């Protein structure tokens, strides 16, 4: 089935048509031929997925659809296609975000959270393979975390808000809703540090280190600094605790 046919069905106003299209998409992306898709093909698919979410109006269906789309990254798409599929996701979010109104913004923020979560799940399933992480970082630094004024500011700010939360959720295998993350982790600091030692956290947050010094917008520099100075990095043994006589918050001190 052509990608154009998928787009038309995924953007349908009919719930049954959209659900059937999503199942067809799972089968299509799970087939070996899907690895031959170009970035343009992925963009076309994500445009259809974007409008599938656009027309999804009720909270529970919205939550289910966001999770279903997120799971495409961790459970469906071939390893060689995950990063291009992720690049296409951000391409479309950046292009289409200006038309997202106040009635639809929450469901798209939820979709972003689910996609980021399942990208981390995919990377975890690949034992945090360094070449995949390099491609992943190249993708986000080319799109949502590029620092470009062509990227709607709400997108990098939302990624800043959720990035460590979702990484923490995946590293420590936490279930439940977003607000329950800290309450559910019952591991000791030593146990957490043993897990984190196997994950290249400092590499994964390197785009925020770069933005904290190089971003043109002061607010983006300041918000990015929140990630690299997050207190969880101290808890995980990646950064020393700040002392009273330490340097200003505006200066990146690096990892311990």
Automatic annotation (TrEMBL):
Q: Which UniProt keywords apply?
A: Nucleus, rRNA processing
Q: State which residue ranges cross the membrane.
A: none
A cellular component annotation (GO) from this entry: nucleus
Primary localization? nucleus
Q: Which Pfam families match?
A: Nop52
Checking InterPro entries in the record gives: RRP1
Q: Name one GO biological process term.
A: rRNA processing
Cellular compartment(s): Nucleus
> Family, per the entry?
Belongs to the RRP1 family.
Q: What is this protein called?
A: Ribosomal RNA-processing protein 1
Instruction: Tell me the organism.
Output: Diutina rugosa
């Amino acid at each position: 089935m052509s990608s154009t046919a998928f787009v038309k069905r995924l953007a349908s106003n009919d719930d049954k048509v959209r659900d059937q299209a999503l199942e067809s998409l799972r089968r299509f992306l799970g087939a070996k031929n899907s690895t031959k898709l170009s970035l343009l093909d992925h963009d076309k698919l994500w445009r259809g997925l974007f409008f599938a979410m656009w027309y999804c109006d009720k909270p529970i269906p919205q939550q289910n659809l966001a999770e279903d789309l997120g799971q495409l990254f961790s459970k469906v798409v071939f390893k060689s296609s995950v990063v291009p599929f992720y690049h296409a996701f951000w391409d479309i979010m950046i292009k289409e975000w200006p038309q997202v109104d106040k009635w639809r913004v929450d469901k798209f923020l939820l979709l972003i959270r689910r996609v980021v979560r399942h990208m981390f799940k995919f990377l975890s399933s690949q034992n945090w393979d360094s070449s995949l992480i390099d491609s992943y970082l190249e993708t986000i630094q080319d799109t949502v975390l590029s620092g470009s004024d062509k990227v709607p500011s709400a997108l990098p700010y939302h990624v800043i808000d959720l990035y460590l939360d979702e990484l923490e959720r995946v590293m420590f295998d936490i279930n439940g809703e977003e607000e329950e993350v800290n309450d559910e982790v019952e591991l000791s600091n030593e146990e957490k540090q043993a897990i984190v030692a196997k994950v290249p956290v400092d590499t994964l947050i390197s785009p925020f280190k770069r933005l904290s010094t190089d971003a043109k917008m002061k607010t983006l520099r300041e918000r990015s600094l929140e990630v690299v100075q997050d207190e969880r990095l101290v808890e995980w043994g990646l950064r020393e605790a700040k002392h009273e006589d330490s340097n200003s918050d505006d200066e990146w001190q690096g990892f311990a």
